[in-house]
Design goal:
The chain has about 325 residues and is α/β, with parallel strands linked by helices. It folds into two domains: about 220 residues, Rossmann fold (3-Layer(aba) Sandwich), CATH 3.40.50; about 60 residues, Alpha-Beta Plaits (2-Layer Sandwich). About 30% of the residues lie in helices and about 30% in strands. It contains eleven helices and 14 strands. The longest helix is centred in the middle third of the chain and has 16 residues.
C-alpha cells in the first residue's frame, strides 16, 4: 500500500472583485512509499502549501483525488492516520508544552489518560522533556518547531506532513530537526515535507518532487536526478609551490592553504594523466575529490519559473 497517492489534483482559486481565476495546482500526480522521506520543493507560489492544505482537508480540490494509506482524503479516517505541522503555527503561549499537547490529543479524540501517558514520551522523543512544564511563550524558534512535530505525533500517525519545518532555524536547530526526521523514518514513519533549504532536502530525502506553477517538473530518487556525472575535480597537492603547479597547466583556480595547493580541474580532465604530471614534477597528490551537481544546481537548471534570479524567491506562499 502507498502511504500517499495523488492523482490529477487541481485547485483553481478566484481572486479579487472580478473573480479572476488563478490555478494553484494543475494535474499533480505522485505517490509516496511507506517509510520514505519525501521532499517537496519549489519556489513561492509553486503550489506546495496548497497541496498540504488539500491533503489535510483544509481546502477542497477543484478536481482530482488523493489517498492517505488507501483512504480517500475526503474521509475523516484519512486525517486520523496523519500528523500535520503547518508552515505557520500559532500556539496558546500561556500553556505549558505538556498542557498544550494534552489539549491537541483531546482534539484528536484521545482519552485524557491516554494522551497524558503519551505526552512525556513524545516530548522526550523531540528533545523537549526538560521543558515539558515551560510555557510555549518562553520557547525559542527551534523549540517551537520541535513542539510542532510533537503535536503532529500526538495520535501516533503513520504519515507526517511537515510544511517548511526547517525555515527560520539556525544551523544547530536545522541539524537537530534533520536528525529528528531521520529518527522518525527509523521508527517506521513516512515523512512528506516541503523545504526551500535545498541542502537539507538533499541530505535526508529518499526522493524529491520539484513543483513549478502547480505542476510537477521533476521527480525521483536524489541519486537518479543528480546523476553520477563529475562536473569538476578538486586536486590537492603538497610539496610544490603554486607558481610551479601553475606552470604545469593542469587546471584553474589555483590557491594555497597551509602548505597544500588546491587546483580545480575541469570535469573532462583525465585524472590519471594529471596525477602523473604532478608526480613527475616532484609534487605529491594528497587528494582528488570529484565534485558533482548539487540539488540546488539541479533545481536552477531544471528551470522553474520562480527560481530565475536566485533562491530569494523561496519561502511561503501557495
Amino acid at each position: 500500500m502507498k502511504a500517499i497517492e495523488i492523482e490529477n489534483l487541481a485547485k483553481v482559486y478566484r481572486r479579487g472583485f472580478w473573480g479572476t481565476r488563478f490555478t494553484a495546482l494543475s494535474g499533480l500526480s505522485l505517490s509516496v512509499e511507506e517509510g520514505e522521506i519525501y521532499g517537496f520543493i519549489g519556489a513561492n507560489g509553486a503550489g506546495k502549501t496548497t497541496t498540504f492544505k488539500i491533503l489535510m482537508g483544509i481546502a477542497k480540490p477543484t478536481s482530482g483525488s488523493a489517498r492517505i494509506l488507501g483512504t480517500d482524503i475526503s474521509a475523516r479516517g484519512a486525517r486520523m492516520k496523519a500528523g500535520y505541522l503547518p508552515e505557520e503555527s500559532y500556539y496558546y503561549n500561556y500553556l505549558t508544552a505538556r498542557e498544550l499537547l494534552r489539549f491537541y490529543g483531546r482534539l484528536q479524540g484521545m482519552r485524557g489518560r491516554d494522551v497524558a501517558a503519551r505526552s512525556g514520551a513524545i516530548l522526550e522523543s523531540v528533545g523537549l522533556a526538560e521543558s515539558a512544564d515551560a510555557r510555549l511563550g518562553e520557547f525559542s524558534k527551534g523549540m517551537r518547531q520541535r513542539f510542532g512535530i510533537a503535536q503532529a505525533l500526538v495520535n501516533d500517525p503513520a504519515v507526517l506532513f511537515l510544511d517548511e519545518p526547517l525555515t527560520g532555524l539556525d544551523p544547530p536547530g536545522r541539524k537537530g530537526l534533520r536528525d529528528l526526521i531521520l529518527d522518525l523514518k527509523r521508527r517506521g514513519k513516512t515523512v512528506f515535507f516541503s523545504s526551500h533549504i535545498l541542502s537539507d532536502a538533499e541530505a535526508i530525502c529518499d526522493r524529491i518532487a520539484v513543483l513549478d506553477r502547480g505542476g510537477l517538473v521533476a521527480e525521483g530518487p536524489i541519486g537518479k536526478l543528480l546523476g553520477s556525472k563529475v562536473k569538476s575535480y578538486e586536486l590537492q597537492i603538497s610539496g610544490a609551490q603554486p607558481d610551479a603547479v601553475k606552470d604545469l597547466g593542469i587546471g584553474v583556480g589555483i590557491r594555497s592553504d597551509a602548505g597544500i595547493v588546491h587546483v580545480t580541474l575541469d570535469g573532462t580532465a583525465d585524472p590519471d594523466a594529471v596525477i602523473d604530471r604532478v608526480r613527475s614534477a616532484g609534487g605529491k597528490v594528497v587528494a582528488l575529490i570529484p565534485v558533482r551537481e548539487t540539488l540546488e544546481e539541479f533545481f536552477m537548471r531544471s528551470g522553474p519559473s520562480g527560481a530565475h534570479g536566485g533562491l530569494g524567491g523561496f519561502g511561503g506562499g501557495a
